[in-house]
């Protein structure tokens, strides 16, 4: 199984209230090692990282549901910059400053924004299936499908089956829970994030990142392919880029052991 304790994941979530009374839900592994902030992707929740938790047990993992996802309330907006601002408030509430950041997809974009803003605080940055310019295109089939979403979203419908398809086998029970979490997110949030992606350009932001960066992407990623990986490889002052042959958009689900090993090796070199 990808995550032996996945049924307990929601019950493990803690909650804090950001200014304005907005709750943010998160899992804190309680580890005694250095703090790692893990940020999930579009429509996912903190559960995205459940399989990495036991492998990264030497660290204290802080894994929030981003605003509008899972058990976290909407913030002031659904742009990458809005998510970054909420995460900064969340970290301040927890009293955490020095931290390494791991982000997947939209979470990776948010991580880039945070690392650019907090150059003295972010010690290392790991980006999984990232993009600097995530515009899907106004007339693409994916854009049309997301725009067509209406509440209630069917967790077993064709859209979410395709949205959560993976290039390598992933535990069906885990994917079922991810689809149910995604279906619970209002269609308006899906639409807003899609619009935000069309306006997102992190190329200048990436140039302000001073932390060492590890980029991991799959050669079979249907969302952010080779051109996105090449742009990332050239964007940061200090960057290592790894392409996993035959892996898709969710390499940390498809092979958590391999991805975790790459992350740990990179972080240890920085330490």
Explain what this protein looks like in three dimensions.
- The protein has 271 residues and is an alpha/beta fold.
- It has a single domain, classed as Alpha/Beta hydrolase fold, catalytic domain (Rossmann fold).
- The chain is 38% helix and 17% strand.
- It contains 11 helices and 8 strands.
- The protein has helices at 9-12, 80-94, 106-117, 141-147, 158-163, 172-183, 187-199, 203-207, 226-235, 251-254, 256-270; strands spanning 14-18, 22-28, 35-39, 60-64, 99-104, 122-128, 213-218, 239-244.
- Strands 1-2-4-3-5-6-7-8 form an 8-stranded mixed β-sheet, with helices on both faces.
- Strand 5 (99-104), helix 3 and strand 6 (122-128) form a beta-alpha-beta unit.
- The protein starts with 8 loop residues before the first helix and ends with a helix.
- 49% of the residues are buried.
Quick summary:
Residues 34-256 form the AB hydrolase-1 domain. By secondary structure, this protein is α/β, with parallel strands linked by helices.
């Amino acid at each position: 199984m990808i995550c032996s304790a996945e049924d307990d994941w929601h019950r493990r979530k803690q909650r804090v209230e950001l200014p304005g009374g907005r709750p943010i839900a998160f899992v804190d592994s309680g580890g005694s090692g250095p703090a790692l902030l893990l940020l999930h992707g579009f429509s996912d929740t903190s559960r995205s990282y459940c399989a990495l938790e036991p492998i990264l047990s030497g660290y204290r993992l802080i894994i929030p549901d981003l605003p509008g996802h899972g058990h976290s309330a909407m913030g002031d907006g659904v742009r990458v910059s809005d998510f970054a601002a909420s995460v900064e408030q969340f970290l301040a509430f927890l009293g955490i400053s020095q931290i390494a950041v791991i982000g997947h997809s939209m979470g990776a974009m948010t991580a880039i924004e945070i690392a650019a803003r907090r150059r003295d605080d972010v010690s290392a940055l790991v980006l999984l299936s990232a993009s600097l310019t995530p515009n899907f295109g106004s007339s693409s089939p994916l854009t049309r499908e997301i725009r067509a979403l209406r509440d209630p979203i069917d967790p077993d419908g064709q859209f979410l089956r395709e949205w959560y398809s993976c290039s390598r086998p992933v535990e069906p029970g885990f994917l079922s829970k991810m689809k149910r979490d995604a279906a619970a997110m209002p269609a308006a949030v899906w639409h807003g994030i899609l619009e935000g992606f069309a306006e997102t350009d992190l190329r200048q932001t990436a140039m302000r990142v001073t932390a060492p960066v590890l980029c991991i992407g799959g050669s079979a990623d249907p969302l952010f392919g080779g051109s996105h990986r090449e742009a990332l490889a050239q964007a940061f002052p200090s960057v290592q880029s790894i392409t996993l042959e035959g892996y898709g958009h969710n390499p940390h689900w498809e092979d958590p052991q391999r991805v975790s090993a790459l992350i740990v090796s990179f972080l240890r070199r920085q330490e």
